[in-house]
């Protein structure tokens, strides 16, 4: 599933997202609200990684879900 499809099912996939990226808190997940760009940005901030790495993590996760 890509993150675009997850937008409509954000609440359903949220458990998987929280499990994968536990460094993000509930408030950040609320702000992300299924939006890919916000997710990438929050991962960059929380984990101190480059944008390309954050995008790769999101892509890998969405391919598995």
Automatic annotation (TrEMBL):
Coiled coil: none annotated. Pfam families: CsbD. Residues 5-56 form the CsbD-like domain. Gene3D superfamilies: YjbJ (1.10.1470.10). It comes from the Bacteria. PANTHER family: UPF0337 PROTEIN YJBJ. Belongs to the UPF0337 (CsbD) family. This is CsbD family protein.
